[in-house]
Automatic annotation (TrEMBL):
<dbReference type="InterPro" id="IPR004558">
    <property type="entry name" value="Coprogen_oxidase_HemN"/>
</dbReference>
<feature type="binding site">
    <location>
        <position position="55"/>
    </location>
    <ligand>
        <name>S-adenosyl-L-methionine 1</name>
    </ligand>
</feature>
<feature type="binding site">
    <location>
        <position position="68"/>
    </location>
    <ligand>
        <name>[4Fe-4S] cluster</name>
    </ligand>
</feature>
<comment type="subunit">
    <text>Monomer.</text>
</comment>
<dbReference type="InterPro" id="IPR058240">
    <property type="entry name" value="rSAM_sf"/>
</dbReference>
<dbReference type="InterPro" id="IPR006638">
    <property type="entry name" value="Elp3/MiaA/NifB-like_rSAM"/>
</dbReference>
<keyword id="KW-0949">S-adenosyl-L-methionine</keyword>
<keyword id="KW-0560">Oxidoreductase</keyword>
<keyword id="KW-0479">Metal-binding</keyword>
<feature type="binding site">
    <location>
        <position position="243"/>
    </location>
    <ligand>
        <name>S-adenosyl-L-methionine 2</name>
    </ligand>
</feature>
<feature type="domain" description="Radical SAM core">
    <location>
        <begin position="46"/>
        <end position="280"/>
    </location>
</feature>
<comment type="function">
    <text>Involved in the heme biosynthesis. Catalyzes the anaerobic oxidative decarboxylation of propionate groups of rings A and B of coproporphyrinogen III to yield the vinyl groups in protoporphyrinogen IX.</text>
</comment>
<protein>
    <recommendedName>
        <fullName>Coproporphyrinogen-III oxidase</fullName>
        <ecNumber>1.3.98.3</ecNumber>
    </recommendedName>
</protein>
<feature type="binding site">
    <location>
        <position position="209"/>
    </location>
    <ligand>
        <name>S-adenosyl-L-methionine 2</name>
    </ligand>
</feature>
<feature type="binding site">
    <location>
        <begin position="113"/>
        <end position="114"/>
    </location>
    <ligand>
        <name>S-adenosyl-L-methionine 2</name>
    </ligand>
</feature>
<comment type="similarity">
    <text>Belongs to the anaerobic coproporphyrinogen-III oxidase family.</text>
</comment>
<dbReference type="GO" id="GO:0046872">
    <property type="term" value="F:metal ion binding"/>
</dbReference>
């Protein structure tokens, strides 16, 4: 990939885990009533046919990794576990009270923070509390994020017994200098043990998260990290581009200078090196950041074009309704989005008052719904089409006009009724989406809000 193209297209841009992206949600927010009524509508339309997904945010971590862009709360006090589980179950109750039949659960995902900060017993109490009010779909899929340094055999066995078959471990990078800089000492032996135990217990999809573009990373360190990863043969690998967003409050990125970060060109070399190596090892690029072995269900979902993208990244199964529980969680009813308050204190206070603790949201209008479909298609399948009348919108020609330059640069192929990204253009997928992002186009941000696209 030419470095001039990288320079040209490496601009600040959204990661498109939603459309509209969070900064472009309606400033006025969403009416509590509208939120509830769209959740109920989505539930009525889809609970019997496809079921619903539940995302539970477990925010606590014992130590701060200074590169981390997630919503977390650093503490070593494990006394926070039980009250938090109680509150999440109360919040779930508030939703269940709005449903007129039993929810059928297709997916549960435990994210963080660090779900394995919680004891196995507390995680069991949490999941059993959720399941007490619902039933599982036949083809249910439960997954969780785990920290290799604190995942025990008991965690893995308890969650397996509850139906979890997938997990993902934060690895990030094996180089000691990088690890020291991001305040995260992550020994290979810990990852090896957690991966081996998962396999022995029967997990059928184990994923490792790696990040490129971290401070002090070099081509050699990336090669070494991926070579070590290869020994453990995870079914999936997330290879994230480091998102540098130190201005986001609460994220707490610090501990290194911007000069310690690789330049855009160096970062691209890290990506290309990693991608090539992953390919040689048999991993296939599924979508932005995500690689899987052909035996993994995510790969099959890509082949059958059933891949979906939401706030968790890519998933193999789509549900119309995703209920997000816990502080900072985002829920999606297809017609609207809503996000919970971002501190544990506010979250607990609101739930205890019997209020679903959202603080902002967005009701999608007709245009949003069409654009959202195009962006999902591009992010999940690297192509979209406007052959069907419902996929057309008045500004379509202007959007295509914006893509002319990318077309000349060989990054997108536009035909009469659709467009496609050639394989080599996949790193530029966010740039293509940006041409369709009418809310961004109409309202260019005046301050930095997004990470760089490449
Ligand atoms: C597992 C941790 C999480 C990752 N993403 C999210 C979580 C909980 C969800 C999330 N993080 C941010 C937002 C935007 C809304 C907000 O509340 O601020 C959401 C929905 C903040 C954020 N995190 C990253 C960035 C670049 C931002 C800013 C907004 C944006 O540019 O989209 C970085 C980041 N977080 C995660 C990944 C994988 C990642 C970058 C690759 C995980
Ligand atoms: C859930 C996963 O998200 C990734 N992750 C967390 N913060 C960032 C960031 N700033 N940039 C890129 N990836 C990040 C880590 O790899 C983690 O394991
Ligand atoms: S990377 Fe994981 S363990 Fe580290 S601060 Fe972020 S959420 Fe916590």
């Amino acid at each position: 990939m030419g470095s001039n193209l990288i320079q040209k297209y490496n601009i600040a841009g959204p990661r498109y885990t939603s459309y509209p992206t969070v900064p472009f949600w309606d400033e006025k927010g969403i009416d509590y009533k509208d939120w509830i009524s769209t959740v109920k509508q989505a539930f009525r339309e889809s609970n019997t046919t496809e079921g619903i997904s539940v995302y539970i945010h477990l925010p606590f971590c014992e130590n701060l990794c200074t590169f981390c862009g997630c919503h977390k709360r650093i503490t070593k006090q494990h006394g926070v576990e039980e009250p938090y589980v109680e509150t999440v179950l109360k919040e779930w109750n508030l939703y269940c009270n709005e449903f007129d039949t039993k929810p059928r659960i297709k997916e549960i995902h435990l994210g963080g923070g660090t779900p394995t900060f919680f004891s196995a017993t507390n995680l069991e109490r949490l999941i059993n509390g959720i399941l007490a009010k619902s039933e599982k779909c036949d083809d249910f899929e439960f997954s969780f994020e785990a920290h290799p340094n604190n995942t025990t055999k008991e965690h893995l066995q308890t969650l397996y017994n509850l139906g979890f078959r997938r997990n993902s471990f934060g690895v990030q990078d094996y180089d000691l200098k990088v690890q020291k800089t991001i305040n995260r000492i992550q020994p290979f032996e810990k990852v090896e043990e957690a991966t081996r135990l998962s396999r022995e217990i029967g997990y059928n999809s184990i994923s490792h998260d790696l990040v490129f573009g971290l401070p002090h990373q070099t081509k050699e360190s990336i090669i070494d990290t991926i070579t070590k990863t290869k020994e453990l043969k995870p079914d999936r690998i997330a290879f994230y581009s480091y998102a540098h967003v130190p201005w986001i409050k609460g994220v707490g990125q610090r501990g290194y200078d911007e000069k310690d970060l690789p330049t855009a060109d160096e970062k691209r070399v890290l990506y290309e090196t990693g991608k090539q190596l992953l390919g040689e090892l048999g991993y296939v690029e599924i979508g932005m950041d995500h690689f899987a072995l052909p035996t993994d269900s995510m790969h099959k979902a890509m082949e059958t074009k059933s891949l979906h993208r939401n706030f968790m990244g890519y998933t193999a199964g789509k549900t119309q309704l995703m209920v997000g529980l816990g502080m900072s969680s985002i829920s999606d009813s297809w017609y609207s989005f809503a996000q919970n308050v971002k501190t544990v204190e506010e979250y607990t206070e609101l739930v205890n008052r019997g209020v679903i603790p959202i603080f902002r949201g967005h009701l999608l209008n007709k245009e949003d719904l069409v654009i959202r479909k195009h962006i999902l298609e591009i992010m999940c399948h690297f192509e979209t089409s406007w052959e069907k009348e419902e996929m057309k919108f008045p500004e379509l020609n202007d959007c295509l006009e914006k893509l002319k330059e990318m077309e000349q640069d060989g990054l997108v192929i536009i035909s009469e009724n659709g467009l496609k990204l050639p394989e080599h253009a996949r790193p530029f997928v966010r740039n293509v989406c940006m041409a369709f992002d009418l809310r961004l186009i109409r309202n260019k941000p005046s301050t930095r809000i997004f990470s760089m696209t490449i």
